[in-house]
Write a sequence for this structure.
């Protein structure tokens, strides 16, 4: 089993290096705080689904690593899921793939092509269940809050994500496909433990995490 501390130390070292190159070394803490929140939410979603400890650990590590290669996010100027600096993304991913091969598919779960794969039926199946949870966790963390996917997508700063329909999304908008995806994963989580299908997932998460 991969130790959480060794993984996070590696993450911090990579982020520090990338921020140092951008002259923004002091901002790494903000990135790590978001990653920490996603990791916690991913783990609790796994607990709600009744997953065993080994898979919960992988979820937590995947949450920690989900921003690998997103240089613009790390620099605090996010304009999309991935930076145009493809060589930076590939270099970081290669380093992490070598060190954490079991975790990389989860860390890469929020990549830009995820919803395209979902629309094509390639994000389904038990082998991708943990990755789906990491994507949902990322969608439910907004700053220091836990919100529904519906609320999170309404807060997106780019109106085009709510209005522009894309062929690769089955003629749906980014908002529509992520809401549909989120609802399906939520139903899947509840069904595994026979939780009340009407239960509010945001409130379940807040209760588990001790958030008012």
């Amino acid at each position: 089993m991969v130790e959480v501390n060794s993984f996070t130390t590696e993450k911090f070292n990579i982020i520090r290096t990338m921020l140092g190159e951008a002259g923004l070394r002091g901002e790494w803490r903000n990135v790590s705080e978001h990653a920490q929140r996603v990791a916690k939410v991913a783990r609790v979603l796994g607990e709600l689904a009744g997953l065993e400890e080994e898979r919960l650990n992988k979820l937590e590590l995947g949450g920690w690593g989900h921003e690998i290669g997103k240089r613009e996010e790390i620099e605090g100027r996010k304009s999309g899921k991935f930076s145009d600096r493809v060589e930076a993304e590939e270099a970081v991913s290669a380093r992490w793939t070598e060190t954490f091969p079991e975790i990389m598919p989860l860390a890469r779960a929020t990549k830009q092509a995820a919803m395209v794969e979902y629309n094509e039926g390639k994000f389904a199946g038990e082998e991708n269940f943990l990755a789906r949870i990491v994507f949902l966790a990322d969608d439910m963390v907004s700053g220091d809050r836990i919100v529904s996917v519906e609320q999170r997508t309404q807060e997106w700063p780019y109106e085009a994500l709510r209005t522009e329909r894309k062929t690769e999304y089955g003629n749906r908008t980014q908002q529509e496909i992520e809401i549909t995806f989120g609802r399906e994963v939520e139903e899947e989580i509840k069904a595994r433990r026979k939780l009340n299908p009407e239960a509010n997932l945001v409130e379940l998460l807040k209760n588990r995490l001790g958030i008012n």
Observations:
- The longest helix spans residues 28-48.
- Residues 4-209 form one domain.
- The mean pLDDT is 80.
- The chain has one domain: 4-209.
